[in-house]
Amino acid sequence: MFLNSVVLILQEILEAALLISILLVLSRQLQLSARWFATGMILGGIGAFILSFNLATISEWLDYAGQEILIATIMLAVLGLLTLIGLYSTLPPSSSRHALPYLMSICVALALSREGAEIVIYLGGILNHQASIQPTFTGAGIGAGIGLSAGVLLYFGLLSLPVSWIFCTCIVLLALIGGTMASQATLLLTQVDWITYSPVLWDSSIWLPEDSIPGHLLYALIGYEATPSLFQAIAYGLGFLLVSISATLGHLNHFRSRRTNTGDK
Amino acid sequence: MSRSVGRFVILLAFTLGIGSNTSFADTPIVELRIRNHLFFPDTLEVPAHTKIKLLVINEDPTPEEFESYELNREKVILGHRKTVIFIGPLPPGEYPFFGEFYPKTAQGKIVVTAQQPSE
Question: From its phi and psi, is residue A251 left (phi > 0), alpha (psi between -120 and 50) or beta?
Fold first, then answer.
């Protein structure tokens, strides 16, 4: 129970921790107050409990497709928010940058609700097994600790990059997470037959299995799949492009307005 | 209730000789139960290149998560609940699955076998 608990909690925490770290670095680069972080964490915690207590009922909606539809919707909402974050963080500071803290806290709240609900359900189930409670919760603590450490490591890793690289790296990482969201949502919709089957593009499970440590890490960071389907790959590409193009558009707009301002003087 | 309706529709489709491999009514339903953190049966045999509707029934009071890296499937099933997971169409081969919450005991596999040529 102990080791299983470490791995399970680590998986869930890692994804959220990496997203939060990137957003925190971005927020720091843009000199925003980090108050959105606390709001997002609190809302995410509440969301995780609400979702876990209602998941049994939700799962039975739409002929047992409710769970997938809801989670896919949350993932696509995160993709939408990442797109807006990409756009607003590259626009000139005066225009609409005040919206960023709200977008970031909703993004964190949604990601945490999704990941947190599974943790609550898992640990809640363990409460029925007296003998397993202690090893499971100890394992959960260690798993959470490792996940958070990875987040902290990414945070300081990003900040140690040359200053001119930090912003761009954050946007690329957010675009990769956006791609992951689109790809995972596609997978969930295929699981309930809302999206039709598409052939598997490649099988890299021999070289890099998904259940290996690098496999888990790459899954959390860039959404690695050993056997992705064609539609998943297309969705990934579209998600990545959506976030990166919106950031590029914002940047071009910023550049143009800066040039106009200099021209005026 | 809805399952019996579904079975009736399948029966009707077969009787009338309608539907193709991909139509909804033709999707075979395979039942999988979770009891004492074990899968029953632990080996499911399904035909190749056919979409399957997997009906997972959790008889335990505790939640379980059906997970398979090979099938790319992952779904939480709460205690005393059931759920549906679509898999395939798959090429012949073995596809292991496990219960992520109790992986030591909850192990199983789907064996996809080449379809008999229909007459």
Answer: alpha
Determine the distance in angstroms separating the CA of A149 from the nearest CA of chain B, rounded to an integer.
24
Across the interface, do B101 and A8 touch by the CB < 8 Å criterion? yes
Q: Of B29, B73, B76, which Cα lies nearest the Cα of B51? A: B29
pTM recorded for the entire structure: 0.88
pLDDT digits (tens, 9 = 90+) for A161-209: 999 899 999 999 999 999 999 999 999 999 999 999 999 999 999 999 9
Cα separation, A9 vs A210, in Å, equals: 16
Per-residue pLDDT of A34-46, as tens digits, reads: 899 999 999 999 9
- How far B26 CA sits from the closest chain A CA (Å)? 13
C-alpha separations of A210 from A181, A224, A226, A245 in Å: 17, 8, 6, 29
Tell me how far apart the alpha carbons of residues B59 and A51 are, in angstroms, rounded to a whole number. Answer: 22
Q: Are A192 and B86 in contact (CB < 8 Å)?
A: yes
Candidates 3.40.50.150, 2.60.40.420, 2.40.50.140, 3.30.450.20; CATH matching B2-113: 2.60.40.420
Q: Are strands B93-99 and B107-113 parallel, antiparallel or unpaired?
A: antiparallel
Which sequence spans correspond to the domains of chain B?
Answer: 2-113
Determine the Cα–Cα distance for residues B69 and B98; give it in Å rounded to an integer. Answer: 9
Sign of CA dihedral A15, A17, A23, A25: negative
